[in-house]
Write a structure and sequence with these properties.
202 residues; mainly alpha; two-stranded antiparallel sheet; 8 helices; 4% strand
Length: 202
């Protein structure tokens, strides 16, 4: 009817699913989500999701950049920086049952790590990177973490390790904890992507 191939149609449905516009219900079919509140507001967010390689290239960049940033934060952090990190970490713990609020404070934690690093060049660079990834990241996070209750608890523990290393001034362990956290998030994302493909093909 639409004069497109089945693989192209499946690809389009997959993107719409990640965007939160449609949802796949095993054994029933594919439906529009009940609310349009979480739909993308910027065309660039859709284009970003269409380029699958770009998404994982962003993770590669984050592992390199944010690992170093966490190490720098462990060396340069002030008491005010530690207070800001602790506030975001506490808010993450308090909102483990709320994917959207948890995601917001998790992002706040990463911004606090950048502030603690004390390098304005790095801060500007990361601001641009986060602008590219912010809306897409939050939508993806809500999409798969809402169905995996244990994920946010593990994610919180990952951030707690980052905080403890920064608090203790341990640059090596701060870098390691940050990279491991990002690897874990990337792994979950790939697993969810594979799950969606199996559901569409099954």
């Amino acid at each position: 009817m639409m004069k497109v191939s089945r693989p192209s149609l499946r690809e389009a449905l997959g993107v719409l699913s990640i965007l939160g516009i449609i949802e796949h219900r095993p054994g029933s079919g594919t439906y529009l989500t009940s609310s349009a509140e979480g739909w993308p507001t910027e065309p660039f967010s859709i284009l970003f999701l269409l380029k699958k390689k770009t998404l994982f290239e962003i993770f590669e960049a984050r592992k390199i950049l944010e690992g170093g940033i966490a190490g720098l934060a462990a060396v340069n952090r002030s008491e005010e920086d530690l207070d800001a990190l602790k506030r975001e970490l506490d808010s993450m713990r308090e909102n483990l049952r709320s994917p959207e609020k948890y995601s917001r404070h998790e992002m706040g934690f990463h911004h606090a790590v950048i502030d603690a690093a004390g390098n304005t060049v790095i801060a500007d660079l990361m601001e641009n990177l986060y602008k590219l990834f912010k809306e897409t990241r939050a939508r993806i996070y809500r999409h798969f973490s809402a169905r995996i209750k244990s994920y946010r608890e593990q994610d919180y523990r990952n951030h707690e390790r980052i905080f403890r290393a920064i608090q203790g001034g341990d640059a090596n362990n701060a870098t390691k904890a940050m990279v491991e956290h990002l690897l874990d998030f990337e792994k979950r994302l790939r697993e969810e992507k594979n799950r969606e493909e199996l559901n569409r093909n099954g």
